[in-house]
Amino acid sequence: MTYNSKAIIWFYLLLLISLNSFADGIQFGSPIQLATDMLFTEGPAWYPDGYLVFSDIDGNVIYKWSEANGLETFASPSGNSSGIVCTKNNDFVLCRQGTRDIARMSSSGVIAPLLSQYKGKKFNSPNDLELSYLGSVYFTDPDYVVNAADRELKYEGLFCIPYNKTEAVLLDSTLARPKGLTFASDWRTLYVCESSTNTIYSYNLRNEYQIQDITKDKKVFLKVTGNEEIDGITSDILGNIYVAFGDGGIKIFDKDANAVGQITFPITEKVRNLCFGGKYSNILFVTAGKSLYKVDIRLYGDFVASGLLGVPTNKSVVFNALSDKTLEAYIAYGTSDGNFTNQTSTQEYPANIPMEIIIDGLSWDTQYYYQLFYRVKGETTFKSATMGQFHTQRATGEQFSFAVEADPHLDEGSNYTTFRNTLQNALNLKPDFLIDLGDNFLTEKFPIPDNYYIEQRNLIYRNFWDKVCSSMPLFIVLGNHEGELGWLNYNQPDDVFNLATSIRKIYYPTPEPSDFYSGNETIYPFVGKRENYYAWNWGDALFVVIDPYCNTMAKTSDPWGFTLGKTQYDWFRKTLEESNAKFKFVFAHQLVGGDNLGRGGAEIADYFENGGKNADGTYGFDAKRPGWGKPLHQIMVENGVQIYFHGHDHFYAEQPKDGIIYQEVPQPSFPAYTVANNAQTWGYVSGTIIPSSGHLNVKILGDSAQVDYIGGYHVNNPSPGLTNGVSRRTYYVKAKSINTGVDLPVKKSNSIEAYQSGGYLFLKSFQNIQVQITIYSATGQCMGILHQGVMPSGTSVYKIPDNISSGLYLVNIKSTDFMKTIKIILV
After folding, report:
1. Between the CA of residue 245 and those of 43, 143, 263, 270, 280, what are the distances in Å?
2. What is the pLDDT of residue 19?
3. Neighbours of 119 (CB within 10 A)
4. How far apart are CA 654 and CA 632, in angstroms?
5. Which of 194, 250, 499, 771 has the smallest count of CB within 10 Å of its CB?
């Protein structure tokens, strides 16, 4: 066998490479041969450490190839292995035709049998395999090499070894010569090649927790025309399907089965299998004939991430993009579309490091349009690239809107098309920015959450957000699955806590304290400023993002364990108390408390750090948070917060409480559109509860704000009454007047505190006390008694009667040894 040197590779490149592009934007170069002179190559699989393994079936060897070391023997004998796949545990699972089994292989090349029988009968000739998101092993079992006399199964099957079981499940026994298989990018659809008829079947996987016969959800995806035979298959992040077709090379189809391209190979090399690899999954590795090839696949031209906006201010915005090529670039911009009167300076940006271009010196409260221009190092002509628009900070009194989404996940329960449609729905309404409430990167759910997997999860979202956030700046709120959890902080640069922060900051511009944003000013080892909580003003609104995870130092069953920490708490309280904004919105992934998993909405708002009560209803804030002062809920009520946006629980729940709407934000990617999963399980009883999927659009209209739940679905009209992009629910909140309370010159006592917000009165007592609470008009007319009797220790809430009209009133709180009066204004 021969390993081609770099000189030979470049010879192929100069002779063959020419980027071919098709209508859907895919571009690819000609195949480059990496190694040859083997016997029968098959089963390529990419490994996170930066190398490829593949089978030489007839040579009974598994080879390893890397850019640095070329071709090396990895495992021999291999049992005549065919298909190989790398798991999230950084080992391999493989099909072995010689030993007729499924085996596991370590990262050092040690092979051990995994499963060889189905219900006591030996497999035929396991050919190819694929892993689901959860780690279930799906494989095909044709009868290629088994002798008729030795054959024990009388059919050629599609099987699965579920991630939570050790035995195989038969999924389909009706296939003839099944070979390659792959999942669509959203893990919902499994494609299987039937080589005898050149048919690709699709199977809809409804519930991987209980895998069974899936033939009822089996459909013909397409029949490949031509004289060759289909074999291996793979897919990209956009849902395109790449099919190995023998002498016909590789055929490419989009998610709707339309042919969008073909890659040709030397006539003597039959293409058998293929997989994506490389840091950005943009290299297609191909086993063909006696050789190994690679093909450069481009979904976004010279870019890996085409560009998104972040950190908008009154005079600037940040543009972030990524290329695997060294570029010179600048941004042209202006106040009218296509008429760019200014540009940033031209700078060189190294390959594989996100470029950040600050568009600065802008005018306040102004709409801007922009476009990126670049040239690859060594080229002479600049090319145009991403274009978009944005608005600088709005003036007070001006109308605008913003979008909110939560929990996109992009895991086994997500639908990528649903997510894309939801994001497009958000962009169509032209909000000033998008706020994502977290649970996107899912870092801490990986078995080995190392640099590679964390980076891959950050990168996958660039395929979605870049398309819309080039005109809708993105703010990220941390969720519980991002890995930035205090209990994962081992004070090491490569622990999950610090790796997750470092990588997020590279790929997503996030606010740090400045003359525009306030936030976390602490300098942390390894990461600098963490950029995990922050606040800013925009028009008539104050936006406050909080993080209940960074300072939660132990994963515990006690919900008091969830905390902002004293520094963040003080910042949060000060930010609200010093603001005169007409609208105040708080954003967090969850309430600071809830059950031991942080679940729950308004029903748990009175408890733990959020509300101050213990689980048994007694007041515990002063004991659990000595010297802090007030629970978060009381601070928000006193200071006129209208909406507390949170995610975590995966449906829509609009829950008024004490003048605040606790707003659970629906998932933007979950395709169960008619069931609010787990609402009752997680204690949601009050308010308006609606299933996912979609996002919220919030319009600031002057003296009110309109909130719309915009439905987002993978198809139009998935159920009666549901239309993609149409509002499922609308409500309004009013601007609030904040009243701090004024004591009249009567006998005072420090044993009680009184505050009012909206139509509610809040009293905090440090002991059980007998009181009478009376409300008077400004002229002294008694309007009614709110309460007469014992007021318990802790915070009590009293609703002001609805029949009392707007205006100035006095509330008198009288006990046997003191009297207190406060002013209130009802609007």
Report:
1. 15, 20, 10, 8, 25
2. 46
3. 9
4. 19
5. 771
Structure tokens belonging to residue 665: 């934000």
**To which H or E segment does residue 458 belong?**
helix 451-469
Residues 123, 141: Cα–Cα separation, whole Å: 7
Which of 238, 240, 247 has its CA nearest to residue 270? Answer: 247
- Tokens standing for residue 278: 């490389």
Distance (Å, rounded) from C-alpha 59 to C-alpha 694? 53
Rounded Cα gap, residues 606 and 107, in angstroms:
51
| Distance (Å, whole) CA 642 – CA 645 | 10
What pLDDT shows up at residue 737? Answer: 62
Secondary structure class of 623 (helix, strand, coil):
helix
Global pTM value: 0.86
Question: Which residues, in sequence order, are CB contacts of 45 under 8 Å at separation 6+?
Answer: 52, 53, 54, 84, 85, 86, 92, 275
Structural domains in the chain, sorted by start: 2-298 (2.120.10.30), 300-393 (2.60.40.380), 394-734 (3.60.21.70), 752-826 (2.60.40.3080)
Contact of 68 with 328, CB cutoff 8 Å = no
Do β-strands 643-646 and 583-588 pair in parallel, antiparallel, or remain unpaired?
parallel
Measured CA to CA, the distance from residue 752 to residue 819 in angstroms comes to 10
DSSP class per residue in 341-407: -EEPPPEEE-TTS-EEEEE-SPPTT-EEEEEEEEEETT--S-EEEEEEEEEPPPPTT--EEEEEE--
SS3 category, 126 = coil
In whole angstroms, give the CA distance from residue 394 to residue 430: 14
CA dihedral for 306, 312, 315, 318, sign (positive or negative) = negative
Q: Which two tokens stand for residue 516?
A: 């525009």
Contact present, 689 and 679 (Cβ < 8 Å): yes
Give CA–CA dist 383/707, Å, rounded.
Answer: 41
C-alpha distances out from residue 201 to 7, 126, 149, 224, 713, Å: 42, 18, 30, 11, 24
162: number of CA atoms within 13 Å, CB side? 14
Report the helix count and the strand count for the chain, using DSSP H and E: 8, 60
Range list of H helices, 523-681: 566-577, 608-611, 621-624, 632-638
Biggest distance spanned by C-alpha atoms of the chain: 104
pLDDT of residue 620: 96
What are the percentages of helix, strand and coil residues in the chain, rounded to 5? 10, 40, 50
Q: Among 89, 82, 84, which residue's Cα sits nearest to residue 145?
A: 82
Report helix, strand or coil for 634. helix
CA-to-CA distance for 196 and 178, rounded, in angstroms? 8
Q: What is the distance between the alpha carbons of residues 683 and 601, in angstroms, rounded to a whole number?
A: 8
The DSSP 8-state label assigned to residue 178 in this structure reads: E
What span, in angstroms and rounded, lies between the C-alpha atoms of 456 and 410? 12
Structure-derived torsion over alpha carbons of residues 32, 34, 36, 39, reported in degrees to the nearest 10: -100
Straight-line distance from the first to the last Cα atom of the chain, in angstroms, rounded to the nearest whole number: 84
d(CA 486, CA 270): 53
CA 781 to CA 825: how far, in whole Å?
A: 16
Contact 275, 295 (CB under 8 A): no
Please give the pLDDT value at position 137. Answer: 96
